[in-house]
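Sequence in, structure out. Go.
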Amino acid sequence: MLVRSIKCTVCGSHKVTEPKHMYIYCDYCGNWLGFDMKAAAKENITVFTRENMNSPEVQRYTALATESFNLGKALDVEGYKRTQLQFHETEFKIFPMRHGPKGKQSSFQKKYLNFYKAYYDEIVDEEFLRKRYVNPDEIYNPQELTYRFENGRTIYEFDDNFKKMIDAYVKYISDSVDRDSNLECMALHPEPAAIQSKEVLMDMSLQAFIQSYDLDIAEKIVEYLGMEEKFIEIDDVNLSDYPCIVCSETLQIPEGASTTLCENCGTLNELKNAMIKCHNCGASFDPKTNNACPYCETVFQKHGSVQDVIAESYQQTTPKTGNKKSFFKRLFVAKKH
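Output:
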């Protein structure tokens, strides 16, 4: 099985199943592994449909984005920070899987909003807003690129100008990682793996950048950056079905896994003793005898709102296939299970 070389910083295992959502989790222990921008794009398409555009939450989301932009241009620091927090709060509602399945849990949302508040308090001032909204820094001038449109797709010429653009973005990503990894607020990030290694952050950011391009150009970027070693061939893994102890969703569990994250309800299932882990404090308990975590009283909610409808429409089930795909198709195109 050919996969992106996404290695868990906790248990050392490689990701072996296709990511379903933007946030990627370890198949063996449930640890956060990074981002998958193809999955994020799919959720965007599902949410911003003609039918959903009349949703009050979607309209509020777009209105807040506009308000945040205007406040940024006006150099209104406090107004900008306040609106950004409202924007992220609404983001949880219309993108139920943007922060992974744990994003459905109220305790996890609260942690993320606390992190966002600390993040904006630390980085946002008038100079920040001036650079982003008044006189924005240009990473690279896209007019220097050569491209054509073909069947609704943008086809880039992989020439020296395109390579200069890649170099500029690599430097920008590197500078951003250096800046963010040194922020005090990162200690509040709800996913501890996000701050463990600059190298991990750099790899995740570069792979997200590569995924924003079509297959043919993505292959050339990988070769130009010398990132071939970031993609590996591993043996096919035996998968078995396991029902989530909370929502009964059928989970595919690789042989040797001890804990798995249900990507439907966000529960961390402990496979050996039929327990779950609390997202807030990490304690293990039996949900059949406790409606909430007995240690911190976090309630595990079952949702019945419009965001669940969006989440269900986003999830797709496709039949398994044993057909092998070419090297880069298996890297960047969703595998069928």
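Check: The CA atoms of residues 261 and 268 lie 4 Å apart. The first strand starts at residue 2 and ends at 4.
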